């Protein structure tokens, strides 16, 4: 209607109006009309191209965005910002970092928005070395550590498993808002530093900063990972009583996880029954994980089937239920579940692991051999397995594919993506260097056991971030206390 009025009053040929028409249609998800409006601009200015570029990225048309970007004769800081921020915000983290490198090569100064988004990409990929470069850049340019940049740095270091650096940045921040405190508290929780997270929350309260609903997610996670049931229940109640914050489904999910981790499954079920809103898949998933860890197969089967009803296309739900069946020797049920997956066209998401080394992010897929160092990686992997065997390791093949013999199953779990990334890290780093790996799925029990033992064998610290939390492996022990 507004577009029609612009035409009626003769304003539709103004470049500023045409630019915002492009922006408006793209924001509404109609890239066809956005492109039509863009093509109708007789004299495009920089803003016109940036609007179209942002529109392509917003609508997921990445190749169109890349083509338009590459066709530009000149690109200023705003154009680079639109491209990098658009990619990162659409979860194209590796591409975002690639464009950031190109931006620096062309001697274009990044603005605060670009730096924050680059740090966000580093956080998601576990690319700490590149995140550290951003910190050095800030110092070299004498750029003030604003709340936004400081919080992004804290978040990046915590999501790379480097708690000490996060503390250092947090202490240097002259101004801290609730987002900064929340990032620190939540990050400590998922790194297994629950008691420290609760101490920081108390400090936050003493300094008069009011927590928000996200802060309490971090606090409840801290109680959960530290096994502090009574404290968790107390904090859950204080949300409403002290701060007037009504618990949402995430908080109830944390409460279910809190009880479930400690084996109090009856109480966890009671929470679900009394929730004022309908429990979602995350809530049922928290209970399901507790059943898996504590070996409660009957309840686990009921909850697993419930999750498959809720998320029939989520391969992870089938795999976890299959693992429960396998652990109890119910191979016919495993086979039936695989048949249902095939019938519904559900395929298992391939495991992939990322490792950041010397400013580059390397990705490994289970069993792949495309890396230039593949030969050396598999030689190292063979050495790792021999040392593990001598230390008493026996491959856990319960989660391997059905229909292959035991020897093949052992080979299958030996080639999981995190083991390949670990071998690559051992080859390419000096003895004693901490190796950090980010995985897209939950770490399997076999890789968890193997990595614990390898941390002692090689006298290294391994930090592995999986889909749910961090695992800090040192001296044959994991920070998660074998509950994840």
Automatic annotation (TrEMBL):
Keywords: Repeat. The keyword Nucleotide-binding does not apply. One of its GO terms (molecular function) is zinc ion binding. One of its GO terms (biological process) is RNA modification. InterPro entries: DYW_dom (IPR032867), E2_motif (IPR046849), E_motif (IPR046848), PPR_At4g14850-like_plant (IPR046960), PPR_rpt (IPR002885), TPR-like_helical_dom_sf (IPR011990). Gene3D superfamilies: Tetratricopeptide repeat domain. Residues 392-484 form the DYW domain. PPR repeats lie at residues 45-75, 76-110, 177-211, 248-278. This is LOW QUALITY PROTEIN: pentatricopeptide repeat-containing protein At5g66520-like. It comes from Dioscorea cayennensis subsp. rotundata (White Guinea yam). The gene is LOC120277236.
């Amino acid at each position: 209607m507004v577009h029609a009025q612009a035409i009626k009053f003769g304003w539709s040929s103004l470049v500023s109006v045409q630019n915002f028409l492009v922006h408006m249609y793209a924001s509404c998800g109609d890239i066809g009309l956005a492109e039509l409006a863009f093509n109708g601009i007789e004299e495009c200015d920089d803003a016109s191209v940036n609007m179209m570029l942002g529109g392509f990225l917003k609508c997921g048309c990445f190749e169109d965005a890349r083509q338009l970007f590459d066709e530009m004769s000149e690109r200023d800081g705003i154009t680079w910002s639109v491209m990098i921020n658009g990619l990162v915000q659409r979860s194209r983290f590796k591409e975002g970092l690639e464009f950031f490198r190109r931006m620096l090569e062309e001697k274009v100064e990044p603005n605060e928005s670009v730096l924050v988004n680059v740090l966000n990409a580093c956080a998601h990929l576990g690319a700490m070395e590149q995140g550290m470069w951003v910190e050095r850049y800030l110092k070299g340019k004498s750029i003030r550590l604003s709340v936004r940049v400081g919080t992004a740095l804290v978040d990046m270091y915590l999501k790379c498993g480097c708690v000490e650096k996060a503390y250092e940045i947090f202490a240097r921040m002259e101004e801290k808002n609730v987002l900064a405190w929340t990032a620190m508290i939540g990050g400590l929780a998922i790194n297994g530093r629950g008691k420290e997270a609760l101490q920081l929350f108390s400090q936050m309260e003493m300094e008069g900063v009011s927590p928000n609903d996200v802060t309490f997610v971090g606090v409840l996670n801290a109680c959960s990972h530290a096994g502090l049931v009574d404290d968790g229940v107390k904090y859950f109640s204080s949300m409403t009583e002290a701060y007037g914050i009504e618990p949402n489904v995430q908080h109830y999910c944390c409460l279910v996880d809190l009880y479930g981790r400690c084996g109090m499954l009856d109480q966890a079920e009671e929470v679900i029954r009394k929730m004022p809103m309908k429990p979602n898949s995350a809530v049922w998933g928290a209970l399901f994980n507790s059943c898996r860890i504590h070996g409660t197969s009957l309840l686990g089967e009921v909850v697993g089937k419930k999750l498959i009803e809720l998320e029939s296309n989520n391969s992870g739900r089938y795999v976890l239920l299959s693992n429960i069946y396998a652990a109890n020797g119910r191979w016919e049920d495993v086979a039936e579940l695989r048949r249902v997956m095939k019938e519904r066209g559900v395929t298992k998401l391939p495991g992939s692991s990322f490792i950041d080394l010397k400013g580059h992010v390397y990705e490994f897929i289970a069993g792949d051999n495309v890396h230039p160092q593949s030969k050396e990686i598999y030689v190292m992997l063979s050495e790792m397995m021999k040392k593990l065997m001598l230390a008493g390791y026996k491959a856990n093949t319960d989660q391997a594919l059905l229909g292959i013999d035991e020897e093949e199953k052992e080979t299958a779990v030996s080639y999981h993506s995190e083991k390949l990334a670990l071998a690559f890290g051992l080859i390419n780093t000096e003895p004693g260097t901490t190796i950090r790996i980010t995985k897209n799925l939950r770490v399997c029990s076999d890789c968890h056991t193997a990595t614990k033992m390898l941390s002692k064998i090689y006298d290294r610290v391994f930090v592995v971030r999986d889909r749910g939390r961090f695992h800090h492996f040192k001296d044959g022990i994991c920070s998660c206390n074998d509950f994840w």
